[in-house]
Amino acid sequence: MATGRPSVKRYVVRLSPEERGGLEAMIRKGKSSAARLLKARILLKADVSKAGEGWSDSRIVGALETSVSMVYRVRKQWVEEGLETVLSRKPPARPSVPRIFDGEKEARLIALACSKPPEGHARWSLRLLESKVVEFGIVEAASDSTILTRTRRRAGSSYPRVKAAVAVRTAAA
Question: Which residues in 144-165 are b (16+ Cβ under 10 Å) and which e?
Answer without folding.
Answer: eebbbebbeebbeeebebbbbb
